[in-house]
Amino acid sequence: MRSIRARLFAILLVTTGIVWVSAIVWIYLSTKAEVERVLDARLTEAARMVSSLITSQEIAVRKADGPAAAAVAVPHVSYDRQLSCQIWGFDGTLVGRSESAPGQPLTNAKSGFSETTVDGETWRVYAITNPELGIRVLVGDNLRVRDRLVADVIRGLAFPALLILPVLAGLIWLSVGRGLGPMNAMASALAARPASDLSALPDHDSPSEIRPVIRALNGLFARVGAVRERERDFTAFAAHELRTPIAGLKTQAQIALGSEDEAIRNNALRQITVGVDRTARLVRQLTDLTHAESGEFDDSIGHVDVGAAIQSLADDIGQHHRDTASVSISPELARLKLDTNPSLFMVGTRNLLENAILHSPFDKLVVCDVRHEPEGVSITIDDCGPGIPEDELPKVCNRFFRGRNPTQTGSGLGLAIAELACERMGATLHLENRSEGGLRAELRFAAVIGARQARSD
Amino acid sequence: MRVLVVEDDAVLLNGLEVGLGMAGYTVEAVSTCADASAALDTSDFDAVVLDLMLPDGSGLDVLAALRGHASKVPVLLLTARDSVPDRIAGLDAGADDYLGKPFDLDEVAARLRALVRRVGGHAAATLQWRDIVLDPASMGVTRGGKSVRLSRREFSILRALIDRPGQILSKPQLEERLYGWQEEIESNTIEVHIHNLRAKLGPGIVETVRGVGYRMAEAGA
């Protein structure tokens, strides 16, 4: 059932109906029991009374002449004359009977209560034996009359209830609608707001049932707002950051167009190539950063063959930047297998490796190694570049931070991406200047991951 | 016309250096706040082109320090942040003009000319001395209506002299206007350029003040 109103209405109506029906059943049963108890007591009393009257000779016992008048078969419409009385001799002769009593014996039982069917009518009979006079007094109630009594009581209860039921249904329908009013009000308030409006819904005067929903919604609004603000900041920053290389490209293009000098033109074209490389890398890094941040990488754990992964990254970087430092991978690192997210590992390592290669002189080596420690496993990337001035170390992972030793194609994003990727993998990134010169970038995977996953085969 | 260009993007810095050089400026190119402050402390410039986001700080700090020393050198801010509040902040910090990236090289050159002109107290776009007219925008020179072809350096010397008629400019002063730091200066270059100027413009224009330097000739000389 789609509508809460219809659902509530049905539930309320059915439960009200069940309560009423149970009440009626209960009243029926208790009324029936009570009526039986009272009428049985009356039967006993009447039987004893007749018996005692006979004993005290106040009623003359005589042989009945035959079956009494035809009144027997006539069913009683009202409650009068519901009792029938018969007095039988021990020899089986009908000594006397009341007007409504049938001719046959009401029961064959010697004494006490019994039920018999005579002429299609069911009788509840109390028998009492008077041995002194040699008679049996039978006093019976027509059960049909008893049932009608109970049925009348129940009918008296149920009839008004049936009349009231439609009224009650209408009232339930209206009050459920009224009760759902605050929800409709909230829905229309939400429907009317523009997409840009992420302000909180007021919750102080709302009913307590709606308040958790409003709070949850407001929490969602706040989170969506924060994400949106971060994206807006990032977009603005990225746009600004792209303007500079574009300005450089435009300037160099204008020089190439405007200069007669072959050497100047060639230099401008070379600069344009460098500028395009840098802009392309910046765009790729912006995409990486957005992906790493927005969680578009699935969080699945995969098997990373670290040596092969670093080798393929080094080959790829070598294709983009000619005449750069080469990469050496230690045999132990080449055997290392890690269970972590492959995309995040590639993105993080790529940026660290690219930094190391681009900062090193072309005739030096970038050394990649692994260290197994009790706390976990560390992948190290050592370069022979200028390192990072100590005062800049805390800031280098900030976005768009470019230190005093930037490369030509540096965007200030590489380390920010590497740090974010490490964070998402559950690893940490450490940067330190090496005593022999150059920078060491260290990817530390925690022991829980390391012990299980990082053992080389 | 010596211009200091402060910009951290290598490609753009190179572009400004070459492009403004083609437009007749002598360009000093630096890429950090520290280098910019050092350059401004040690030599005079006719104008400064300043980027705002630099690796070791904001260009606005350099600008504030410059104005703190009561320097009147015109400053053109070049920046990727060119929203109205950014422009206002830049101009209030003492910049004379503001240009958002990406820009047109010719526009940078034109704005620099306008800034230098205003500081020199000229309103007209061209400089005139007797019947010689200099157009800094096109680097064209006419004498008596007839066009005279000058090299970039000859033009710079003539312009420096006409900018301050009557004032004597020494050889080192002229050299500083003509060459960047990295450029090798041959010992007799200024003499060669002055000689060529006299040959092209005719005698009685550039006067040698023996032992001091050069100036535009006194009236009636």
Concise description?
The complex is a heterodimer of chains A (457) and B (221). With 457 residues, chain A is of the alpha+beta class. Chain A contains ten helices and twelve strands.
Overview of the structural elements:
The complex is a heterodimer of chains A (457) and B (221). Chain A is built from 10 helices and 12 strands. Chain A is an alpha+beta fold. Chain A has 3 domains: 4-164, Beta-Lactamase (2-Layer Sandwich), CATH 3.30.450; 190-296, Helix Hairpins (Orthogonal Bundle), CATH 1.10.287; 298-453, 2-Layer Sandwich (Heat Shock Protein 90). In chain A, the strands form 3 sheets. Chain A has a 5-stranded antiparallel sheet with strand order 2-1-5-4-3. In chain A, strands 7-9-10-12-11 form a 5-stranded mixed sheet. Chain A has a two-stranded antiparallel ribbon with strand order 6-8. The radius of gyration of chain A is 51 Å and the shape is rod-shaped. Residues 63-77 and 450-457 of chain A have low confidence and may be disordered. Chain B has 221 residues and is an alpha/beta fold. Chain B folds into 2 domains: 2-119, 3-Layer(aba) Sandwich (Rossmann fold); 127-216, Orthogonal Bundle (Arc Repressor Mutant, subunit A). Chain B contains 8 helices and 13 strands. In chain B, the strands form 4 sheets. Chain B has a 5-stranded parallel sheet with strand order 2-1-3-6-7, sandwiched between helices. A 4-stranded antiparallel sheet of chain B has the order 8-9-10-11, with helices on one face. A two-stranded antiparallel ribbon of chain B has the order 4-5. The radius of gyration of chain B is 18 Å and the shape is elongated.
List keywords for this structure.
heterodimer, A: 457 residues, alpha+beta, Beta-Lactamase, Helix Hairpins, 3 domains, disordered C terminus, B: 221 residues, alpha/beta, Rossmann fold, Arc Repressor Mutant, subunit A, five-stranded parallel beta sheet, four-stranded antiparallel beta sheet, 8 helices, 13 strands, 41% helix
